[in-house]
Design a protein that fits this description.
It is built from 8 helices and 11 strands. With 207 residues, the chain is α/β, with parallel strands linked by helices. It has 2 domains: 120 residues, Periplasmic binding protein-like II (D-Maltodextrin-Binding Protein, domain 2); 83 residues, Periplasmic binding protein-like II (D-Maltodextrin-Binding Protein, domain 2), CATH 3.40.190.
Length: 207
């Protein structure tokens, strides 16, 4: 059985919650597939944007990934979104320079194309969307766009670059996804992992 987990800032939180349910692994090596403390259970550390693809195709049974990535994923027919893990919290927001555009067709820079399209469509607003993958904040500063749609945590980066957060589009957190086919054939082990994580979450976030 394979669990795929994200590189970067979410890795520590995912590693800790797996440790809470008795699954440990050493991510200090350069190995691509890692053994765990549980027999026949392995871990692969991937880019967040690749995780839904591996789970959807059944290469991995379980994945941990941000809701922002899931929103942009077209191939959702073969996995369930089972748990909101309540960590890795941030927000997908609309932001701009303090000077707001009066254009009839404002330009939006983002890497969250689907989310941006749905947001402006819900407002019946005609926009042009430009896909960027780097530092999105620079687009309005250099005049490439009127607005940006991007993830915001503290808002410090926006403020330091003279941008203002105008509207929260969606609150984002890390989710646990499960391959549908694997769930049917390997139900007992998957359900045990999901149940144990849910118990940990209920203990941490109970009122």
């Amino acid at each position: 059985m394979l669990i795929v987990v994200p590189k970067g800032r979410l890795l520590k939180d995912v590693k800790n919650i797996l440790l809470d349910i008795g699954i440990s692994f050493d991510d200090s090596s350069r190995k691509l597939i890692l053994d765990t403390s549980v027999k026949n259970l392995k871990i692969a550390i991937l880019r967040s944007w690749d995780i839904p693809k591996f789970v959807n195709k059944g290469i991995a049974e379980i994945g941990f990934v941000g809701k922002d990535v899931l929103n942009e994923t077209d191939d959702k027919e073969n996995f369930y979104e089972r748990l909101d893990l309540k960590f890795g919290k941030c927000r997908l927001s609309l932001a701009a320079l303090n000077k707001v555009s009066d254009s009839n067709k404002p330009i939006i820079a983002t890497k969250y194309i689907k989310s941006a399209k749905e947001f402006f469509s819900s407002k019946l607003q005609n926009v042009e969307i430009i896909k960027l993958k780097g530092a999105i904040e620079i687009a309005p500063i250099l005049g490439l766009s009127d607005y940006i749609v991007d993830l915001v945590q503290s808002g410090k980066t926006l403020k330091e670059n003279g941008l203002s957060e105008l509207e929260i589009i969606q609150n984002i957190s890390t989710r646990l996804i499960v391959n549908k086919s694997a769930f049917k054939t390997n139900n007992k082990m998957i359900e045990r992992i999901v149940f144990d994580i849910e118990e940990v979450l209920n203990g941490k976030y109970k009122n």
